[in-house]
Amino acid sequence: MGIFQPGDVALRREVLWGRPWAVTPTRVVVDEPDLLVLFTVPGTRFGFPEHPWRHGWQASGSTHWRGNGKLQVHRPGDAYSVDVYWEGEDRRFRGWYLNLQDPFRRTPLGIDTLDHELDYWLPVEGGWVDKDRVEFEEQVVAGKYGAEQAESIRAVGRSIEAMVEAGATWWDPDWAKWEPDPSWPVPELPDGWADYPLS
């Protein structure tokens, strides 16, 4: 699979039960063999194809990304991304959001993955808290995740907790200072994105 260039559009497509579930067009920041960094430009519209499991953002009426945008730092094989969050017009760094998800799989259009609901928040002040654990367990009961997959997700959470407690985080803290290229326009979804073959 080819390597994207900085500024290219890459589709972050979520796949649930073998079918596209949601998509976010992103801008590529870094695409190297051991690191993939994507940026969601403020105002980017989400795509939601028909699916038997309704996406939470779709259900809440969220149609596009608000705020300062989101930077997502990935390593191949990791079942989570490290997302960088800022707030306010001065883009004040607020913390790291570890988003549990399927390890990304490359496609000609970008990547396929699946959000796992369970996440971890590492505020700039220090410490950590898990997020949406109750919602995750409710979704397990409802059948979104099978028992084996659910336990695998919990195990990723435990490994994240151990990493943070040991002070062994691997990502470059300078990502907190990163700023997007002001010339990047909001990317748009190409026609037929939901029908493109799965990775």
From TrEMBL:
Molecular function as annotated in GO: hydrolase activity
The organism's place on the tree of life at top rank: Bacteria
Record's keyword annotation contains Hydrolase: yes
Positions of the DUF402 domain: 55-167
InterPro entries referenced in this protein's UniProt entry, alphabetically: DUF402, FomD-like_sf, Ntdp-like
Keyword terms of this UniProt record: Hydrolase
Key word Zinc present: no
Pfam families (alphabetical): DUF402
PANTHER family listed in its UniProt record: PTHR39159, UPF0374 PROTEIN YGAC
The protein's name in its UniProt record: DUF402 domain-containing protein
Lineage start: Bacteria, Bacillati, Actinomycetota, Actinomycetes, Pseudonocardiales
